[in-house]
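Entry 12.
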Amino acid sequence: MDDSEIKKFYKNNKSYCSMPFKEIYGDNAGRYKLCCHAKPMTWKYTTTNTVPFKFFFSPEMEQIRNKMLQGEKLDACKVCYKLEESGSESYRTDKYRKKYGVDIEPRGIGLKLRINGTFCNLGCYMCHPYNSSTRRNELKKVFGNPMAKYTHAGDQAYESKPLSYREWNDTVDDIINNIDKVAYMNITGGEPLQLPGHWKLLDRIPDEHAKHITLSYDTNLTELRWKKWSIFDYVDKFKELKLGVSCDHYGIKEEWIRYPIDIKKFEANLVEAKPLIKQLNCTVSLLNVFDLNEIWDYYWNKFRIKTTFANIVRGPEFLSIRNLHQKDKDMILEKYKDYKDFSYIEHELKLPKKAELIRMKNYNDKLSDNRTWPGANRKFDWRELWSEFNDR
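Predicted 3D structure (tokens):
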């Protein structure tokens, strides 16, 4: 299909998405999902009891693909349907359509499997605890509970479910046995560049297959090397190697949001790894939504690296920009209306409040002030950095 035919297909078919035909996604809670944005499915398959390709070619997944081709909407895909109902592009009609087009057969499969553990050296203030060991440790230290309910969307606490040594080996064996079907691998974590299992997986992929695979990362870029391994050693092995770098502000505000990041080392890594960096991925929350222009300008002017704003904090819900006062929402809607990624910001701003700003303030106070809350790690006061919230 050409571009016009693909657009027409998506316009007429309100269910089809390329991801169930193109990608195997498993999260750190042990769940296989249709994509990273989809709601969890109620089925027997988990990353601990079923290897990836057995799940992907299961009768249940075949049924889902058939339903999509017939235009039948799925409960798991409500995130996209709601975006479309509001008049916005959704992930299926924007990101995935442009990247993958339309395919009615599962081939050129991508892997986005969180199988290598949840170790991460950062505890980003909005991160799901099951994705970061440092985040869990901070929540336990400050609040006494590493899976505190108020840190999750919908007040649900999903625990991480790491693979056992046997389960990990079975999964890797399955990937290698089906490596001829793999077109790309998106490596995430935890912090993937500091997970030993990820390096071992890369080393097991035969060179003749690696040269046909695009390797991409979601990384905090705080380290480019781990023990004997270096990311630069794999550039020539794979068809392409790309880094998507998580970055939510700059300077001291970045230090607070992504504590305990070393800003000087991070920026030095930006320079060293620049040829591999696809983009910076900023996750939009209450603590950066007023500064998106400045964030974009900072990284473009200093490093000539572009920043995207397609990721939106939806959980924990009290950190969502939907909770701003209406006058602030109106100002932001006008300020960023020409942004490429604006539809996702616009949709979130048009949703009704879920929580008062005082919940965000109280939460940040406890993370920030180790004089009042002895368990707090972030040794400086967030209210001094974000003074705009003092009168909101």
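Annotation: Strands lie at 23-26, 32-33, 109-113, 182-187, 214-219, 225-226, 229-230, 240-246, 277-284, 307-312. The first strand starts at residue 23 and ends at 26.
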